[in-house]
Design a protein that fits this description.
By secondary structure, this protein is of the alpha/beta class. The protein has 13 helices and eight strands. It has an eight-stranded mixed β-sheet with strand order 3-2-1-4-5-6-7-8, sandwiched between helices.
């Protein structure tokens, strides 16, 4: 057996067996990795045990079982709390966290792991649990490159698009929040549109293709917007702040006609208005980035 093949089949521990954690453990099992699991509620481990996973009785036992330990708990705080009592068992192992959280929490956990003698990567799964293990599923990681390279063959069992973002341990958390900021507004926009169509007796399904085409158009514009933002030059934009400002009146008219609540748009309209008042009316809508920036030392207002 080759060294690469042995590494590919290296033992793995998964701690936290919610919907995502269970999917991670299943992907490791499907790829042929000897997999040890632990969960605070042992019943969750039953289906994995039937597929060949070893169920550890304690976190310490789970840590000692494998050189690579993947946690999928709710937060970084929850991860440290679950492993604190067994922290000494982390020594010489690599801890990979796959949970959401702020960049500062990822940095704190990196220091905590180093204090226990463990290598550390903080990662993010940018997809749903059912997609874990698929060739196109995207996972990102931040942390020492050498640590990532040592375990990349095993980590690719979780998704074929496995990306190391850089040496800083908080990069996956930073990018997850930066990229994820698009998700909720886009979904709520779709839900509002669906409700408006239903108010006219039409189905949400009837807007899926058109919405997909709109999102494709937006995807095509992202490199243009990114270039404007990086250069901080918004003068050549085709979709101006004033154009979006004029469109806010149409949202109010649609709410009145359909009875669908569009109050969630009010802060967005206010942001566009602030950009116009700051002199960006004729500029690209990407100029909203300038309004979103806070002067050094300024904190969020209550």
């Amino acid at each position: 057996m080759s060294e690469q093949h042995e590494q590919h089949r290296s033992p793995v521990t998964v701690i936290g067996l919610g919907s995502m954690g269970g999917a991670l453990a299943s992907a490791f099992l499907a790829a042929g990795h000897p997999t040890t699991v632990w969960n605070r509620t042992p019943e969750r481990a039953g289906p994995l045990a039937e597929r060949g996973a070893t169920v550890a009785a304690t976190p310490a036992e789970a840590l000692r079982a494998s050189p690579l330990v993947v946690t999928c708990l709710t937060t970084f705080d929850a991860t440290r709390a679950a492993l604190d009592a067994a922290g000494s068992a982390l020594s010489g192992r690599t801890l990979v966290t796959l949970n959401s959280g702020a960049p500062a929490e990822a940095r704190e956990t990196a220091l905590w792991a180093a204090g226990h003698g463990a290598g550390f990567l903080a990662g993010a799964v940018l997809d749903v649990p059912s997609a874990v293990g698929s060739p196109g599923t995207l996972l990102t990681y931040g942390g020492e490159r050498a640590v990532f390279d040592a375990h990349a063959p095993a980590l690719r069992a979780l998704g074929g698009d496995t990306v190391h973002l850089g040496e800083e341990p908080d990069l996956a958390a930073l990018y997850e929040m930066a990229v994820g900021a698009t998700l909720l507004p886009a979904l709520v926009g779709f839900f509002q549109g669906a409700a408006a169509l239903q108010a006219r007796g039409r189905t949400a399904a009837s807007m899926v293709d058109l919405t997909g085409r709109l999102l494709d158009m937006v995807k095509g514009l992202l490199p243009v917007f990114a270039d404007e933002i990086d250069r901080r030059d918004y003068s050549a934009g085709e979709s101006s702040v004033d154009l979006f400002l004029a469109g806010s009146a149409h949202d109010a008219a649609l709410e009145e006609e359909t009875g669908v609540d569009s109050a969630w748009l009010a802060p967005l309209h206010a942001l566009v208005r602030r950009a116009a008042e700051a002199g960006h009316g004729k500029d690209s809508i990407a100029a909203l980035t300038e309004v979103l920036r806070k002067p050094a030392g300024q904190t969020r207002t209550p």
